[in-house]
Amino acid sequence: MAVKRRSEPTQELNLVPIMNLVTILIPFLLMAAEFVQLSVIDSTLPAIGPPQPQDEVPEKPPLTLSLAITGKGITVLGADSVLHPDGAPELAEGEERPPTVPCKSGSNCTGVDDYDWPDLVRILGLIKDEYPDDENVILVPDSRIPYEVIVKTMDSSREDPNNKGGDGRPRPLFPFVVIAGGAM
After folding, report:
1. Domain ranges, ordered by start, for the chain
2. How far apart, in whole angstroms, are the C-alpha atoms of residue 146 and residue 150?
3. Residue 177 has pLDDT above 60, yes or no
4. What span, in angstroms and rounded, lies between the C-alpha atoms of 33 and 73?
5. pTM assigned to the model
6. What contacts 72, CB < 8 A, 6 or more positions away?
């Protein structure tokens, strides 16, 4: 005897709840994703125009501190000359003056870590001791200097992490950084 099977009608799968979940989940995941992370470094632009005349003559001339960043190191400049808080090195006739903070390797700097950052912070601390009211520094990078070196110079010139004040914060050096174009 042949057994006859009953055929049950096939039920369609209800996909509406899953489609609703996906419709809500996709915008949520897109909003939660971080595609680009931006950071801001505070700096100011150089002043444009002739200098403003002053009625009072200061007893001490302004510092006008500049840091010339080259491939050989960092030269610390004052208003008119190169600053050497430790004393200027003696040079033989016809010898080129080395940077104030030369590269660790002794020749051209090969990267960010080849610059002597602790020595730069130490020298800026000595200058800050002589000019405690000055807060501006002008960075003059060479056109071939990598961006990371400029940022590290900005960070090093702002504060001395090794000297903590009474409140536990690093000693501020020259927090207002101006970036100028075209090094020596």
Report:
1. 66-85+98-179
2. 7
3. yes
4. 41
5. 0.66
6. 98, 99, 102, 103, 107, 108, 109
